[in-house]
C-alpha cells in the first residue's frame, strides 16, 4: 500500500471514528443545551411571531393565523439592535446582490443560447464567441462565480450580524473583495469569449484572472471572523458553522485547483472532479443550508426541530464530502481504489442528507399551509426538498451499475441543475425576497410578480429536469447497445433537448421578471407600501419620524 492510498484510507477511517465520537459527545451533552442554541436567532419574546418582509399585510395575517397565536413583540431595544445590524450590512449586501442579479440575467441568456445549439447546431455559428465551445463555459462560469457565488456572499454577509446579534465589522473588506471578485468574473468571461481558457470544466478562467477570485474570496471572509469576535450571543447557531466553513473552504479549494503547473495528466483529471464536486458540496451547499436553517424557522416563528441533528448534518458533511468527486471518473485510467473510496464516501452522504431532510421537514410539518402565505418560505422549502432529491440522486449515480448508463449523458446535466438550480438558486431567490426589504427599507412594489417568478421557474425547471433526465437515460442505454450507432444515440435525444430549451426559456423569462422587479424596488418604482417589511410601527416612527403609509 503506497503513501497516497494510506493517506486517503486513513482519512476515511478517521472520519468514521470522528463521527462516532461526535455522536457520543452530543449524547453526553458536551455541545451544550440544544434548545437554547435553536432559539438563539429569536428575540426574548419573539417565538410565535412570524416574519416575512416579502409578504403583504394580508399574507402576513394569513401566515400568522396559520402558525397560531402571536407572542409578545420584541423589546424596543432588541428591535433597534436588529435594525442597526441590518443597516450595517445594507451597502455591501445591496452591491453583492445587485451584481448577482445582473450575472443571473446574462448567464440565463448564455445558457438558453447554448441549449438551443444542441438541437440547432448551425444557429449563430458566424460569431466565434457564440459557438458552443465558448458560450457554454461562459454560461457555467457566470452561473457559478457570478450569480451563485455573489448571491451566496450577499446572503451570508447579511446573515452574520443577525446570527451574532451585533453590527457587521469590516464591511470594507467585503466591498473590496466583492469588487475584485466581480472584476475577475468579467475578465474571465471576456477571456473565454476570446478563446482563452484553461480547458477544465469549472476551471476555465485563465489562472492569472483566478488570482482576483482567490484574493477577493479571502477578503470576503474577513468580516465573519472580525464580527465573530464582537458577538453578543451565548451559542453559535448552526448557520454560523456552515457560513464559516464555506468561506474558509472555497478560497483553499480554488487556490489548489488553479495553481499553475501543479497537476498533470490523470492527476489533473482527478483534481478537476475533486474540485468540481467540492465547489458544490463545500461552497454552495454550506451557504444554501445556512440560509435554509435561518429562514425556515424565522419565517414560521418556531425553532428548528432538533439542533443536535443540525450539527450532525454539518459535521458529517465535513467528514465525508471531500472525496466524492472521483465517481465521475469511473472507467477512466485512474486507480480502482480511488473510485471505490469515492463511491463509499458518496453513500456515506446519506447521513448529512437525511439529517437535514428530517430536521427541516419536521420543522415545517403541520404548518405547510404557511407556504400559501409566505413568498420566502415557498422558494426555500422547495429548495430544501430539491437538496434532498439531488443528494439522493447523486449518491445513486455514484454506483457503478447506475453510472454505466448515466455517465457522459444529459442525465448528468439534469442532475447538476437539480443541485445548483433546484436547491441553491431557489434558496437564494427566497433569501433575497426576505433580505432586500430590510436592505432598502422598502417593500417589493408588485407582489404578484413574486408569484409569477415562482411559477415560471418552477414549471420551466420541471420541464427542463424531467425531460432531460428521460432523454439522458435513453441516450445512455443507446450508447451501451452495440447495435446502435453513436449518431443514432444523438438523434434519440433531440426531442428531449428541444423540451430542455422550452423549459430553459421559461426559466429565463422568470429571471427577467425577477430582475425587473428587483431593480424596480431598488429605484423605488411602483406603489408606495410600507407595512409588512417593517419590524414594527413604533420602530418606523423612531427611525423615520413618520407613521406607517398603507
UniProtKB/TrEMBL annotation:
SUPFAM superfamilies: Cytochrome c oxidase subunit I-like (SSF81442)
Keywords linked to the UniProt accession: Electron transport, Membrane, Respiratory chain, Transmembrane, Transmembrane helix, Transport
Domain Cytochrome oxidase subunit I profile: 273-550
Transmembrane segments: 6-24, 91-118, 138-161, 173-197, 209-228, 240-261, 273-295, 307-324, 336-358, 370-390, 418-437, 449-470, 502-520
UniProt entry tagged with the keyword Transmembrane helix: yes
Extent of the signal sequence: none
Pfam families linked: COX1 (PF00115)
Origin: domain of life: Bacteria
Alphabetized InterPro entries for the sequence: Cyt_c_oxase-like_su1_dom, Cyt_c_oxase-like_su1_sf, Cyt_C_Oxase_1
UniProt protein name: Cbb3-type cytochrome c oxidase subunit I
